[in-house]
TrEMBL record:
Full protein name: Putative thioredoxin
Highest taxon above the source species: Bacteria
Native species: Candidatus Planktophila limnetica
Pfam families, sorted: TPR_20
């Protein structure tokens, strides 16, 4: 294993300004020096990933980020190792890690340096980054993938779905989103549950016949599009609602557009049919 490029050059972070005060005696993670960087991090990373944060006592944001990382390491049950680099005390190490500003986080995976982020984030966002590191590391045979954590509201929703109680599942997902508005899994779970509710009891043949008989009947088009998406037949569903967006009055157009956006959330973002439908919708609206 080799050290990253530029090891030994001076690091210039003079924009931080004031002389560094004494750092707190308790600092999360292993303090990194030129001596222990290779054995404790580069070599260690062949068995488990290591996360390193470059920080300075002159930067409260970087100190807060280090505290968050310390909490996450404690919660990880030894899945990864945390190191810290006080750039004022270890300019050579900071330079070796190509530090330009703090907080600056990198990972070591199988002896390779992987830049992570260089600005402060909330704990939830940093946890997502670390989970991604653990996933990528496990794919390379280093360490274990992150343990799956199920939120209590999600567990409640899944149990309700198992019994066909869609309304209770919907309420549970909404409760989770009220607590964690950016939870992607909760958003997807809610979208899936809502389409279960909308299609519950619908007859495929009569619903499709109604939509074909009057293509500008938005309610019929929405119901038919739901069934088609449930059957993984997304192209006709998209085309049906796009036709309404292009040709209906303002109120009906909005209903069709909103419903189409809800269906978009249920399709893989990389699906070319979705990519084209998004473009077609933008053209139809503007």
């Amino acid at each position: 294993m080799t050290l990253p490029p530029n090891f030994g050059r001076a690091v210039d972070l003079s924009s931080l300004g004031k002389p560094a005060p004494q750092a707190s005696a308790t600092v999360a993670g292993i303090s990194i020096t030129p001596t222990n960087l290779t054995p404790d991090f580069l070599e260690y990373s062949s068995t488990k990933p290591a996360i390193v944060l470059c920080w300075s006592p002159r930067s409260p944001e970087s100190m807060a980020t280090l505290e968050i990382l310390g909490e996450l390491e404690s919660e990880s049950n030894g899945a990864w190792r945390l190191g810290n680099v006080n750039i004022d005390e270890q300019p050579e190490v900071a330079s070796a890690l190509q530090t330009k500003k703090v907080p600056y986080a990198v990972a070591f995976v199988a002896g390779q340096l992987v830049p992570l982020f260089e600005q402060p984030y909330a704990k939830e966002q940093i946890a997502l980054v670390i989970n991604k590191v653990l996933e990528l590391s496990a794919q390379q045979g280093v360490g274990a993938p992150p343990a799956e954590v199920i939120e209590p509201e999600e567990e409640e929703a899944l149990k309700a779905l198992e019994t066909g109680d869609f309304k209770s599942a919907e309420a549970a997902y909404k409760k989770l989103l009220a607590r964690k508005p950016n939870d992607a899994f909760a958003k997807l779970g809610l979208a899936q549950t809502e389409i279960f509710i909308r299609t519950d009891g619908l007859n495929l043949e009569t619903t499709k016949a109604a939509a074909q008989a009057d293509p500008l009947n938005v309610l019929a088009a929405m119901a038919c599009a739901d069934i088609e998406v449930m059957s993984a037949d997304v192209q006709p569903a998209f085309d049906r609602l796009l036709h309404c967006v292009r040709n209906c009055s303002a109120d009906e157009k909005k209903k069709a557009k909103d419903h189409l956006l809800a269906l978009f959330a249920l399709v893989d973002p990389s699906d070319p049919r979705l990519i084209k439908a998004r473009s077609d919708l933008a053209n139809a609206l503007f």
